[in-house]
Amino acid sequence: MATALKTRLYAETIKPKIGARVLNGKAELLSGELSNEIRTLLEERAVLVFPQLHLTDEEQVLFTRSLGQFTKEMRGEEVFEITLDKTRNPTSAEYLKGSLFWHIDGTMHQYPIHVSVLTSKVLPTWGGNTEFANTAAAYEDLPAETKLKIAGLRAMHSAWTSLFYYEPEPSQAKFEEMVALGETELPIVWTHRSGRKSLVLGCTAHHVVDMNWTESALLLNGLRDFATSEPYHYAHEWSVGDTVMWDNTVSMHRARPYDPDCGRLLHRTIVAGDEPIV
User: Fold this and answer.
1) Nearest one of 66, 80, 70, 2 to 29, comparing CA atoms
2) For residue 134, what are the contacts with CB-CB under 8 A and spacing of at least 6?
3) Exposed / middle / buried, residue 125 (Cβ in 10 Å: 0-12, 13-18, 19+)
4) If you average pLDDT over residues 216-237, what whole number do you get?
5) Are 264 and 258 in contact (CB under 8 A)?
6) pTM value?
7) How far, in Å, CA of 120 to CA of 55, rounded?
8) What percent of the chain has pLDDT over 70?
9) Distances (CA, A) of 143 to 100, 138, 184, 259
10) Average pLDDT, the chain
11) What is the mean pLDDT of residues 6-29?
């Protein structure tokens, strides 16, 4: 009597502290049989790379649904086009300029995105790599005295803080528009339900509450510099058809500079978060 063979997940480590490359074919990945193993590996490695998968939008949605609670984007679309081309993305091209700086998606939301999935459609003429940093591994390796210093500290986060990264002298109208999006106070150390801890940093972090502003800036900058350094850092150089996913709750990411008129295009789908930053 024939026995059905269980599909195995084939993956190789990219760096000791971050990243894994998944080598299974498209059919195996879309079957859903590997979903639990993929989720486990993603939690461990923060970033997973699926080379040359060439997912269609429909396949990417199906793949993302297999990983958790699929959610639509803010405008209701299932697939979000990440591009600075205003003819393709007229409402978000300006906002996406902030993606060139280290950030966590959704720090202003009650539940930040859990998993993001990106597929490359059009390459830039130059630049445009996407960088990731494992903020859980970085926290684990902090010196004991630093962990003690930042325990219980909280920082203010806002969209308008990130505005000054890419437009240091905005018009008052644009500044007021960003300020109207509000701000939120978050812990520097996120204690997850699992007990694991990660750092909450990035370009939305303005200042540490009740701390001298110079000391605050030195602390936030130092933590970000540490968390994005080797060995917690991975830069992905895109090929058309590559798919990359990351656990947004234990990582930061950013795009490297590229020609804004080149038409660089990636398609994003997301798994909803269900855990507040506490």
Assistant:
1) 66
2) 17, 18, 45, 46, 47, 227, 232, 250, 251
3) exposed
4) 98
5) yes
6) 0.94
7) 9
8) 97
9) 29, 10, 28, 39
10) 94
11) 96
